[in-house]
Amino acid sequence: MYEPYPVPELAREHKKFRYSSLWAFAKQDLRLLAFLLLIAACVGIGLGYFWICIFSAFLIFFTLQLRSLYLVNEWISNRPYDVPPNLHGIWGALLFNVYRAQRQERIVQAEMVGLIDRAQSSLVALAEAVVLIDELQQIEWWNPAAEKLLGIQTLDRGRNILTILRQPSFIEYFNHIDQAPDGLKMKSSAFEDHYVQVKMTRFGGESRLLVAYDVTRMHNLEQMRKDFVDNISHELRTPLTVLSGYIETFLDQEDLNPRWKRAFDQMQAQNKRMNALVNDLLLLSRLESNKQIAKNQIIEMPSLMNQLFDDAQAYNVDYHHTLNLDIDSHCDLIGSDMELASAFSNLITNAIKYTPKGGTITMGWHDDGEQGIFTVQDTGIGIDPKHLPRLTERFYRVDSARSRQTGGTGLGLAIVKHVLMQHGAYLEIESKENQGSIFKAIFPKERLYQMTE
Known about the structure:
Blueprint: H1 9-12, H2 14-17, H3 22-47, H4 50-78, H5 89-125, E1 129-133, E2 139-142, H6 144-150, H7 168-175, E3 184-187, E4 195-203, E5 207-214, H8 216-251, H9 258-288, E6 297-299, H10 301-315, E7 322-327, E8 332-335, H11 337-353, E9 360-367, E10 371-378, H12 400-406, H13 412-422, E11 426-432, E12 436-444, E13 448-449
Parallel strand pairs: 7-9
Antiparallel strand pairs: 1-2, 1-5, 3-4, 4-5, 6-8, 8-13, 9-10, 10-12, 11-12
């Protein structure tokens, strides 16, 4: 509890002259000067030394002012935390204001210290690791959870954080935190088979706040899900292949009853849909796994764009859209041609499927010197803006009934998102209901390749 300092007699009456003007305090000095001059005049007239006495009065007044100034300076210099001397006049007003401001500052300081103590106590109680890192990348402070999750020890104060957390992925994240807004998941340096999610935020220039929490359970559950999807997808392939073979055998019979033919046609359509779903699941599983295809191929974009355009024309036979191809960039892409072709094809087929017959689809490849942009623009049904943030989630559908009619698996945009992420790119969507959509795959400058002559 903060205990107030002793208050001098002058300060106890602060309410009386808090709102008084400086003139109210100056009048005390003027009355003293007038009193001294009056006494000096009377004495000077009686003794016959009028001006000498008047000068002596001024000298005495000036000496008293110098004494007050000395007391003020001595208190400020040597005893600032003691009760100030009880002076009158302008010097008393000065002391009162200095002392009052000093007390208010101490109260604020005490409150700030208390607030900081409470904040530190709260951070100490957190299960999440919290680390303060200064502009020189040195550790300033951490809570006990940081010792358990990150292996920081007492002797590490003042050490460079990169000498403690030496994983290449963390060093890359530390140097480019703006490129990973969701943070980084990495193995714990303190415990084997444990994973932590690390998130850093800049403050006060180049200082950083690091927050980390244990995500081992979530990681294990995610791995179980991936393994389950991967295994079940492989297991489904065999029965689907057998069913597909028997269905085709029956459909090839010339004397097949029309009623049975209709049933087998529907069975074949559903079998194809299941095959498409299994293939998408396997592709998504492969994209998420660590066994990634090398992404350093130089992809000739004019050739790829023409191939995609030809494939789109074949797919467009039943839709009768107008297809346009717009290429105004001389840059090629560096990446995996198979994965990028799959991602671009997903965007194009989606545009074709979800655009009413007779629409217009435009595929484009552009660059602005800093980024490469693959675009697919349609005049389709459009998407309500509230759905845009969730479009790349697995199995998320804006209209489930329409997706079933078009044979969609709900995984196309999820695949696109993963492919782009592995190429350092991202998907941008602009859409308005009944006015069409624009899907943009935006690649960083590092992924662009331009042949030099």
